[in-house]
């Protein structure tokens, strides 16, 4: 590249972009780790975007109608941190930049949501940024339809790298965004032809522009170092009604001796390389110092949106009080006051009528009561609407011609769905839930983990949660997926036993502000086990005594979901033989673990033998409750799965795999013998 | 559709295809569940493929040079079962068809590898069939390069549905296959425009032909009910050097009243619908009966390849004895006799020289010794070659111009890589291993589960296995991924502590015939802890006493991988205070669980307090060893992670998260107090 030509053609632009490049070089050198090349390559695009297009006010980073900027290529985090520092986000001080990648700094190796305003989502796991951005763009459409253009009218901009586009989830995002004509979604592809292993062509020769076009995108190609071309392309992208992809031909690690190489992708820390690159940039300031006129220009950019933001405040204030309150409540993730009474009424009715229902159907019942009340919910399914029971009659399909639609037909795209749900939750104003078969937790996992890490309350509706789904066989029968979600920090895994517990689980899930929930729901019908109405949400305690022992308490059966009824039947068998048996329903291990020890000991006192019952592997957190505070394997056992399932009717499978009341009773007797 | 026109145009073809359709209707009706529409829609394509193109011999279903047929749309399993029955695969009797989806039948809801010959891979989780097929096609290329066209010269055919093409993994497969010009891979897209939720256009309007073309595929579109057009398209697909996609416009549930509807996707069980459909087919035979002349025609198809197969036997016999032995050994998944001595020499050297090495580097050392010996290995990485240390100097890149290459640059495609590795293992003759960062287990999960379910020994090299990776932060730091893999049935999770254990782990992984392995390897350097050479493979026992207590045994520290050295340091601290402390290294919990109880009790005797040490969540199987056979939480504890990690240098993170020798020693003292 002829840097001199670039510098002289657009000197003001050049210096602003050089500020990003030098901060990146300095921070990576100080950390002695990180990724220099991407920010150096994309500095021009980012500068044009922030200077001329991005609607934001650094002093009010949470302004709901700001444009969102998603750095899907999260390893280039210094691009984002530089921009936040330069434009004057108060939290992003030069000290933070100097402490890049150090303990306690908000400038983590990859952008971490919650560390600082301006970081809209956690990125790093590639491809998920673009998929999450789809959810941001959807949320904007929904808010605009609901509150009008004067309140919601912003763009979602994404920088994606070659890695993002190779990850399969990008295809799910691209195809879905194209179908939905998300015209305010604009993706910059950092087309630098370099990955860690070498040139892109080592593993890919896809014509990315043709690929995006095939899914209905508006596509342009520009020189990613030509500010005028970048600006013109963004103008065009904003004008089209299609989602836009701008292929930006860039040079990774621009201006350094590592330019256009895999080495340039990583940490450039060699002092001579850094000095030479700065010299080529015409940069003479010391490390971490931005000449004041350049900093002033950047800060002016950071203030550019202040007036627009103030005008927005006025427009927002012109909404009806009720609309304002609704809007704010949803952004604050507060539930409507009426939720508790609606849930209670539903529980009371279920306890009285004692329906036999699959918990996926119970869930539909609950949603049918909640959705009209909580208009911020947006439901959906990865092409299993009738099986996941996620659609209620009051909500229509979200479509280009119906942006008020609150139900999303995601297609067969569990990962894309989950990432986009995260995006809606992050955008604010929306409470997303979406369904698939629980076994396909495997497909959704990368986004489920990010929800937990980002502390956002996405709800994953996982139906067909055991061998109880029957004939579809072991590929569709989860056995280890409760364990997977339970092992994940900051995740509530609910396995309700009947309609009452399902209602309670939904109440906790929808009241949660910082924890995602997994609802593990059955395909098969279950009897109501909560026959006595309780005002309190017992599921919120994680576990509770469903039926106590009659006579001397010799055994405790601990069960979840569909196996609670089996435990109750086992209790009948044991009591008939004079063995006093308590049944503990444990719909949420995480919440039980959060209770104080006194309560836990009350529910699981020392003394009796304990048998856990769950149609899944014992590794799903059971040993803590079976062996803990009680001890000795000789006094505890487990009835569940020890391997994968099989294809047969559900009742046959329960019998063949030995998950029956008789088997439970036998285990108890063997332990007592 | 004008069925009469179809029937009269190609009556012989029609009847053969109708046999598939009626068997499907009968089996689904008998099971009262299943998926009728796909086999009914794709029967014509499958008939032409099997009749005119597929190279197979039903009497010798494991013939190595057969064409492979992969039903990626696995829910249409009755298509495959019908074909296997009709062409005369001995195991696929009419009784099996009648017992579709019943306990003990080989005709599971989705095709399960291992249930019957002719089922080349387990499918059902959508998109994975096509991604697995990529591995089959690669294995064929590699075998052809190595043994010549006379021994390996076959095609891989795939039927993929709309769901397969919506799943992101399909893009990973398509892009990779295009780059690699896998010309013998031919994909039929069942373009029926129907998914469970409605028409495809509800969630997708992608121009699939343009999408495949963008990645370098040869693309054709045909009427999927016109046998001549299908035949001609397959001819063309075989002639091109590119991978081929044939878009087959079909009618789901053809000829029934549910044709072209979502209802037609599922189980058609209504007797009148079935009767009407059969009448429209001109089919008068009773349920499950195939008129003898039609069955005879199908059986002739099943025998069509017998001569070719016999000729292949002769050609194979003409190979040198050594080549024959090599070929057969690899297909039988036998290791070379020399492997044990090579591993022992490596162990001895490591114990003597006691290098400080990251276990990912230890792994590279081991592979450098193994790869020249086991020429059936094919390594690779999802664009992290230098980080995963998966490439050894003796193996070159697999490329269109170098099919002898045994190293695969997979690109940033963890799921596609893992599925294709499974495909190579299933094809036979290849032992695949591939690397990524352990946190991206999340991306690879769907294929890792299928490896376990299918009982194939794929090796997943997961480096950067804890907070020990440092600055990249929590998105890249696994904490729950050991738990995830350990909760998965039939999976060995190895977390070796040094070069010696790494060598032992590789020996077990490469000797395994039916169990996939996860190697959990560090980024950071570790001291050698196995300083005394042992001939035996101690890792194969799962856990063993690394250092025994001096004096009275009061504490047992159980640790894995990078934390074994910490446990050893804690032991020093404790012994210095006179507290006799045993250190147990536990590189593989699954193998330890397989040992007899006497051995387990010898390693973990009752009495001493126990502290586990692992830089991961306790949910990763620890409670069994901490609480089991010993009891009482008051006598056991764990030093590890309780939430996600953070971005900082590794040594800082270990300190901040309290995973130190001092913390371990303190826990022991608190338990003893």
TrEMBL record, chains A, B:
Organism: Pseudodonghicola xiamenensis
GO BP of this protein: pentose-phosphate shunt, non-oxidative branch
Site keyed Important for catalytic activity: positions: 35, 265
Cofactors required: Ca(2+); Co(2+); Mg(2+); thiamine diphosphate
Top enzyme category: transferase
EC number: 2.2.1.1
Keywords: Calcium, Magnesium, Metal-binding, Thiamine pyrophosphate, Transferase
Binding site for substrate: 35, 265, 360, 387, 464, 472, 476, 523
Pathway where it operates: Carbohydrate degradation; pentose phosphate pathway; Carbohydrate biosynthesis; Calvin cycle
Name of the protein this chain belongs to: Transketolase
GO MF annotation list: metal ion binding; transketolase activity
Subunit organization: Homodimer.
Family to which this protein belongs: Belongs to the transketolase family.
UniProt xrefs under SMART domains: Transket_pyr
Transketolase-like pyrimidine-binding domain mapped to chain residues: 357-528
Catalytic reactions of this protein: D-sedoheptulose 7-phosphate + D-glyceraldehyde 3-phosphate = aldehydo-D-ribose 5-phosphate + D-xylulose 5-phosphate
Binding site for thiamine diphosphate: 75, 124-126, 163, 192, 265, 440
Annotated Mg(2+) binding sites: 162, 192, 194
């Amino acid at each position: 590249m002829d840097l001199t030509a670039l510098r002289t053609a657009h000197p003001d632009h050049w210096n602003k972009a050089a500020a990003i490049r030098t901060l990146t070089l300095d921070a990576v050198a100080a950390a002695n780790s990180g990724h220099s090349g991407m920010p150096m390559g994309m500095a021009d695009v980012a500068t044009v975007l922030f200077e001329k297009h991005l609607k934001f006010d650094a002093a009010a980073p949470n302004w709901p109608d700001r444009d969102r900027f998603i750095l899907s290529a999260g390893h280039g985090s210094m691009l984002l941190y530089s921009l936040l520092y330069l434009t004057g986000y108060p939290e992003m001080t030069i000290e933070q930049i100097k402490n890049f990648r150090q303990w306690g700094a908000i400038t983590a190796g990859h952008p971490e949501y919650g560390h600082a305003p301006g970081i809209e989502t956690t990125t790093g796991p590639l491809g998920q940024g673009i998929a999450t951005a789809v959810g941001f763009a959807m949320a904007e459409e929904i808010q605009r339809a609901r509150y009008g253009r004067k309140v919601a009218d912003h763009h979602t901009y994404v920088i994606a790298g070659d890695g993002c586009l190779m990850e399969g989830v990008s295809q799910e995002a691209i195809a879905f965004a194209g179908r939905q004509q998300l015209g305010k979604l604009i993706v910059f592809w950092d087309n630098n032809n370099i990955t860690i292993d070498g040139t892109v062509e080592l593993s890919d020769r896809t014509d990315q522009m043709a690929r995006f076009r095939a899914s209905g995108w508006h596509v342009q190609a520009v020189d990613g170092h030509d500010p005028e071309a970048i600006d013109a392309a963004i103008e065009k992208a904003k004008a089209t009604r299609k989602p836009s992809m701008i292929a930006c031909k860039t040079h990774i690690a621009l201006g350094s001796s590592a330019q256009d190489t895999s080495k340039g992708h990583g940490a450039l820390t060699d002092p001579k390389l850094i000095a030479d690159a700065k010299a080529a940039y015409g940069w003479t300031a010391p490390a971490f110092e931005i000449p004041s006129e350049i900093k002033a220009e950047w800060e002016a950019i950071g203030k550019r949106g202040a007036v627009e933001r103030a005008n927005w405040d006025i427009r927002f204030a012109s909404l009806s009080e009720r609309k304002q309150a609704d809007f704010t409540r949803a952004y604050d993730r507060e539930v409507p006051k009426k939720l508790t009474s609606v849930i209670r009424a539903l529980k009371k009715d279920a306890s009285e009528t004692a329906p036999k229902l699959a918990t996926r159907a119970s869930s539909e019942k609950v949603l049918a009561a909640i959705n009209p009340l909580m208009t911020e919910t947006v439901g959906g399914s990865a092409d299993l609407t009738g099986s996941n029971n996620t659609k209620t009659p009051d909500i229509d399909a979200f479509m280009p011609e119906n942006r008020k639609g609150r139900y999303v037909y995601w297609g067969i795209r569990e990962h894309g769905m989950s990432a986009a749900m995260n995006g809606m939750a992050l955008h604010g104003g929306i409470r997303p839930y979406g369904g698939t078969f629980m076994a396909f937790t495997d497909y959704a996992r990368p986004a489920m983990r990010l929800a937990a890490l980002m502390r956002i309350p996405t709800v994953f509706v996982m139906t067909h949660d055991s061998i109880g789904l029957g004939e579809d066989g072991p590929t569709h029968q989860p056995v280890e997926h409760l364990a997977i979600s339970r092992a994940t920090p900051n995740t509530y895994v609910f396995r309700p036993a009947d309609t009452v517990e399902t209602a309670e689980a939904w109440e906790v899930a929808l009241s949660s502000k910082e924890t995602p929930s997994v609802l593990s729901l059955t395909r098969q019908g279950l009897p109501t086990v909560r026959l006595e109405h309780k005002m309190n949400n017992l599921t919120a305690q994680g576990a509770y005594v469903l039926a106590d022992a009659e006579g001397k308490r010799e055994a405790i059966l601990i069960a979840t979901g569909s196996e609670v009824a089996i435990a109750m039947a086992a209790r009948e068998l044991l009591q008939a033989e004079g063995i006093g048996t308590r049944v503990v329903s444990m719909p949420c291990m995480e919440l039980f673990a959060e209770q104080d020890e006194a309560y836990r000991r009350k529910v699981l006192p020392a003394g009796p033998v304990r048998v856990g019952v769950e149609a899944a592997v014992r590794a799903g957190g059971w040993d803590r409750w079976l062996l803990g505070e009680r001890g000795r394997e000789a006094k505890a056992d487990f009835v569940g799965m020890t391997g994968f399932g099989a294809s047969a009717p559900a009742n046959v499978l329960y019998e063949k795999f030995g998950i029956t009341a008789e088997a439970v009773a036998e285990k108890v007797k063997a332990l007592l013998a």
